[in-house]
Amino acid sequence: MTEKVKYNFFYIIQNFVFAIFAILFFIVVFYETVFNSNYIGFVLMLILWFIAYLFTANSLRNTYRYISNLPAIEFTEFSLIDHQQNVIYHWNNIQKIELITRKNTTFAVFKLKNIKEYIDQLNNTEKILFKIFPDVIPIQVNLTYIKGNNKNIFNSINSHFSKYRS
After folding, report:
1. DSSP run (H or E) holding 63
2. The pTM is what?
3. What is the pLDDT of residues 122-149, one digit of tens each?
4. Residue among 81, 100, 102 at smallest CA distance from 157
5. How far apart are CA 99 and CA 154, in angstroms?
């Protein structure tokens, strides 16, 4: 049995606009750096490139998935598939799930039994960030960007977890 939940339209528009601004800002900093030999700008440009890359790649992938009418998350008997972050959470690897709201954004936060299984699915840039800040970066699914009521989505995640965990 597979259950699919779609993206929230507002999320796609918000992230797409932000990605465009991130790219434009990067271009301005790049121009300043190259044509004015600004070394501080070069360091800033590298940091911005790193952040813009992470955000823009996810935004463009999720925009494509929304336009193609593909789901944001899927529930199967074995796992929760988070297409927003391109990660699979196996029910038997989840120890605990909590609902957390920060600044009008709601998350399902996972405590995993085997974090290595999660890290292995991340792209290289995300792996570096996770290794540098392992206690700062939460393992989570952003529910705000998924179509539907956040608490209902969380309850659905929790009920699948309770039903299928080993």
Report:
1. helix 39-67
2. 0.75
3. 877 788 878 888 777 789 998 988 888 9
4. 81
5. 7
